[in-house]
Write a structure and sequence with these properties.
Blueprint lengths: L1 E4 L2 E4 L31 H16 L1
Antiparallel strand pairs: 1-2
Length: 59
């Protein structure tokens, strides 16, 4: 991930706590820096995490 500074590619500022990772498959997630950080890399991983959370709460 790079940004343009004066027409020259410069490395993006490092994230404070490291890049976010998917809750299910630990894939590094892209995050634009605005809004809420993503928790899952895809709808499939999001659904899998929801099912695991529901199973944990019902036990």
């Amino acid at each position: 991930m790079t940004s343009q500074i004066g027409g020259v590619d410069a490395p993006a500022a490092p994230m404070l706590f490291g890049a976010p990772t998917c809750a299910m498959c630990a894939t590094e997630l892209e995050w634009g820096g605005k809004g809420r950080r993503p928790k899952a890399c895809s709808k499939a991983c999001s659904s899998k995490a929801d099912r695991a959370r529901e199973k944990e709460n019902s036990s």
